[in-house]
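User: I'm curious whether this sequence folds into something compact or stays loose and floppy. Could you predict its structure so I can see for myself?
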Amino acid sequence: VLEGSVYTWALAGTTDLNFFRSESNPYPGGMAETGGDHDYNFTTRVEPSIKVPRMVLDTSGNLGVGTQSPTGRLHVTGSSGDGSVVLPSSSISSTEMVNEPGIVQVTGEVGSIFFKQTIATAEINAPASGFVWACATGDANLSFGVNQAVVGFIELQAEDSSGYDTVIRNYSGAAGDFVDPYHLSGVFPVTAGTHSFTVTVDSDDGASFILSDTRLVLMYFPTAYGTVTSPPEVTK
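Assistant: Here's the prediction. I'll summarize afterward.
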């Protein structure tokens, strides 16, 4: 292959395949080598008047399919849908794909709690904007102390402003004490980055919690396949 020469293979009709090596682009509209003297570039396209790129390998080693300006090692442009890129089963060898779902679980405080206290905290690192499903579960034995009109709270809350509080209220009963298995869950929109979620207990008038089996589970999802709405914020 001689420097400055263009080698063209006519494929069908007005479509062709071009291989060339040059320090100064010899083919108007084609790809040019900008440095070194060992690499080759190629494009497949229709006639220049139509200017529709089929495939481009640029000087940085980026391969574009359906685009003449690839921004990554492989850049595919075309119609959306799960049929636009087809790969064999079990063909991805990297340990983790970007934006795939992920899960976090922590166990929290157990024992007696007499004041407002965070009993579980978990963080999840979202690789891109999406949604986090948060679920808090456990058992809470609420002892009402000297005042039978006491109320206790268990709250699940996202750290940032996109979240909301979910509150369970425990009221006094005839026996004074009771065990309440709780389950709090919500879907929170998130941006890329680390997000913190907490579970908090609170009570008044001398009441105390005895907690067991405290768990907080977070799951990240990169997209939604329907509408995601949040319930109204609940306050004390």
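Summary: Confidence is low (pLDDT under 50) at residues 21-40, 172-176. The radius of gyration is 30 Å.
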